[in-house]
């Protein structure tokens, strides 16, 4: 019976959950023009804005410009996520432990900036 329920749940999620989990597009950073790009993403308590600097086909800096998430968690995400993005040269990096919403908002804002 367990497989039947699992199968039914998967079917319901596929039918009614479309659009809830959207794969993030990949960006070829090496093809971006040098410059500073601004983008926004959604944190726990509203918009998070970032500036992303690209030079020589690499992300050289990510600065969190604004956000209203809970200070303790937002500060942790601001300290960790931008550094990871620069170090790993990709947007899909690990979130700061305990600061998932802020981390995801920062990553979404960086992706938004790079897509413009």
Shape label = globular
Q: Which class do the helix and strand fractions yield?
A: alpha+beta
Strand content: 15-25%
CATH topology value? Sufe protein. Chain: A
* Count of discrete domains: 1
CATH class: Alpha Beta
Biggest sheet, spatial arrangement of strands: 1-2-3
User: Can you tell me the CATH architecture?
Assistant: Alpha-Beta Complex
Specify the number of helices.
3
Describe this structure in words.
- With 116 residues, the chain is an alpha+beta fold.
- The protein has one domain: Sufe protein. Chain: A.
- Helix content is 42%, strand content 24%.
- The protein is built from three helices and three strands.
- The protein has helices at residues 2-16, 71-88, 100-115; strands spanning 35-43, 46-55, 58-66.
- The chain has a three-stranded antiparallel beta sheet.
- Strand 1 and strand 2 (46-55) form a beta hairpin.
- Helix 2 (71-88) packs across helix 3 (100-115).
- The longest helix has 18 residues, at 71-88.
- The chain is globular.
- It starts with a helix and ends with a helix.
């Amino acid at each position: 019976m367990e497989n039947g329920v699992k199968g039914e749940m998967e079917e319901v999620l596929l039918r009614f959950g479309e659009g809830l989990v959207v794969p993030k597009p990949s960006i070829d950073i090496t093809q971006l023009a040098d410059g500073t790009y601004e983008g926004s993403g959604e944190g726990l308590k509203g918009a998070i804005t970032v500036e992303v600097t690209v030079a020589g086909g690499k992300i050289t800096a990510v600065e969190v410009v604004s956000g209203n998430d809970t200070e303790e968690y937002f500060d942790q995400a601001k300290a960790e996520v931008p550094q990871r993005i620069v170090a790993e040269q990709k947007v899909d990096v690990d979130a700061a432990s305990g600061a998932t919403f802020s981390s995801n908002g920062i990553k979404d804002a960086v992706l938004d900036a790079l897509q413009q």
